[in-house]
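Figure 6 in text form: structure in, sequence out.
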C-alpha cells in the first residue's frame, strides 16, 4: 500500500519543521517498509507570493488526492496589511472548510522529560497534565457573517463578526468528543459562555441532550473564563475539553504552554472520512524563521498522529513518539525547551536525531 501525503510547508518556520517531520516519516517508512510518497502544495503567504491567492485550487486538488495532509504554519508580517479574505490565514481556514475538517483534536500532555519546563508550580504540575482539546473547526465566529462598514465621519465606522452554530454542527463535534472520551477517562468538560451567548446556550442544551445517549460518560459544563483559570489552577481535572472554534483556539494555546512549550503540541483536523490534516498548533514564528531555531517536535508528533489516525499505522506512530521521548530524555533540546545542562540543537539536528533513533 502506498500512503500519499500532501505536504504544505507554508510560511515562517513551516518549511523547517515540515522538513524534519518528512525526514522522520521517511525513517519510519524504511524501518517498517512502508511506501510514503509526498506531494508538495502551496498555501498561505508562499502561495500569495507565487500566484496571488492564499489557497490555489491546485492545492485543494493535491490534498483531495492524498490520504493525509501535513501542514507547517502560515502567516507573517509581510502579508499583514492584506484584507481578511486575501491573508495567508484565509488559506488555512479555506482548506479546513474545503476538506470538511470540522473536528480539531489537540492533545496536551506533560511528558516526564519536560517536567521542568512546565511553567506551573511543582505541586500543581505533579498532579499530571493529560488532556485532549476537541475544538470545533469549521463553524462559529471564524466562519460567521462579518464586515467592516466605513462611515464618514470615521468615528462612526464599525465592524462585526458573528458567532453562529447549528444543532447539527454542535452534534457532530460533540460526537467526536464522546467517542474520544469513551476511550479515555469517560469525562468531558464542555466549555462555553452560556451566561452571555445564545449560541453557547444552544451548545450547552445540545450537549446535554446528547449526553443521554452516552450514559457512561460524565459531562460537566464550564464557562470559558473559568476554564482559562482552571487550566493553570488545576489542569489535572481535565481529560476531554469540548469547545467551539474560537474558545478552542485560545484554550489550546494555554493547554500547550502548560505542558512546557507551544513547540511540542500536535494536532489533527478530521472530517467524516479518513483523510485528515495534521499540523503543529504553533504559528509561523517569523521572528525565528530561517534561523534553524524552531522546535520540530510538534510537527513530528503531528506526523505520528497522521500515521495512527489516517493510515491506521499504530506501531509506526508509537515508534515516532518513542523516538521523540528518547531524544528529549537524553536532554537534547531546542532553545524553547532548554533546561540546565541540556544540549541545545537546531531544528535540523533535532529532526535528524529523532529519525536516527527510529532507524536504530
Ligand atoms: C490555529 C491558528 C489558526 C486558527 C490561525 C493561524 C488562523 O491559530 O490553528 O490555532 O486560529 O485556527
Ligand atoms: Mg491558534
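Output sequence:
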Amino acid at each position: 500500500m502506498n500512503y500519499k501525503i500532501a505536504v504544505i510547508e507554508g510560511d515562517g518556520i513551516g518549511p523547517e519543521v515540515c522538513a524534519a517531520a518528512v525526514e522522520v516519516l521517511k525513517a519510519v517508512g524504511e524501518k517498517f517498509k512502508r511506501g510514503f510518497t509526498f506531494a508538495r502544495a502551496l498555501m498561505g503567504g508562499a502561495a500569495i507570493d507565487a500566484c496571488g491567492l492564499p489557497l490555489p485550487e491546485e492545492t485543494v486538488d493535491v490534498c483531495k488526492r492524498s490520504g493525509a495532509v501535513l501542514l507547517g504554519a502560515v502567516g507573517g508580517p509581510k502579508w499583514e496589511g492584506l484584507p481578511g479574505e486575501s491573508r495567508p490565514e484565509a488559506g488555512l481556514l479555506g482548506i479546513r472548510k474545503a476538506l470538511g475538517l470540522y473536528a480539531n483534536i489537540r492533545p496536551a500532555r506533560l511528558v516526564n522529560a519536560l517536567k521542568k519546563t512546565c511553567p506551573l508550580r511543582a505541586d500543581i504540575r505533579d498532579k499530571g497534565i493529560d488532556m485532549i482539546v476537541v475544538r470545533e473547526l469549521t463553524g462559529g465566529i471564524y466562519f460567521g457573517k462579518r464586515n467592516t462598514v466605513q462611515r464618514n465621519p470615521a468615528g462612526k465606522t464599525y465592524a462585526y463578526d458573528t458567532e453562529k452554530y447549528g444543532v447539527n454542527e454542535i452534534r457532530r463535534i460533540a460526537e467526536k468528543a464522546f467517542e474520544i472520551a469513551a476511550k479515555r477517562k469517560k469525562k468531558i468538560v464542555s466549555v462555553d459562555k452560556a451566561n452571555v451567548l445564545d449560541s453557547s446556550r444552544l451548545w450547552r442544551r445540545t450537549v446535554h441532550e446528547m449526553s443521554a445517549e452516552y450514559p457512561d460518560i460524565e459531562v460537566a459544563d464550564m464557562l470559558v473564563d473559568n476554564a482559562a483559570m482552571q487550566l493553570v489552577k488545576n489542569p489535572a481535572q481535565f481529560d476531554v475539553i469540548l469547545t467551539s472554534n474560537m474558545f478552542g483556539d485560545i484554550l489550546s494555546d494555554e493547554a500547550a504552554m502548560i505542558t512546557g512549550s507551544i513547540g511540542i503540541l500536535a494536532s489533527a483536523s478530521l472530517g467524516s472520512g479518513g483523510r485528515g490534516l495534521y499540523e503543529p498548533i504553533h504559528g509561523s514564528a517569523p521572528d525565528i524563521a530561517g534561523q534553524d531555531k524552531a522546535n520540530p517536535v510538534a510537527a513530528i508528533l503531528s506526523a505520528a498522529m497522521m500515521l495512527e489516525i489516517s493510515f491506521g499505522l499504530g506501531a509506526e506512530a508509537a515508534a515516532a513518539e518513542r523516538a521523540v521521548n528518547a531524544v528529549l530524555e537524553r536532554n537534547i533540546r531546542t532553545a524553547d525547551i532548554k533546561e540546565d545542562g541540556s544540549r541545545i540543537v537546531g531544528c535540523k539536528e533535532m529532526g535528524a536525531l529523532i529519525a536516527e533513533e527510529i532507524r536504530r
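Caption detail: The chain has two domains: 1-104+262-360, 119-258.
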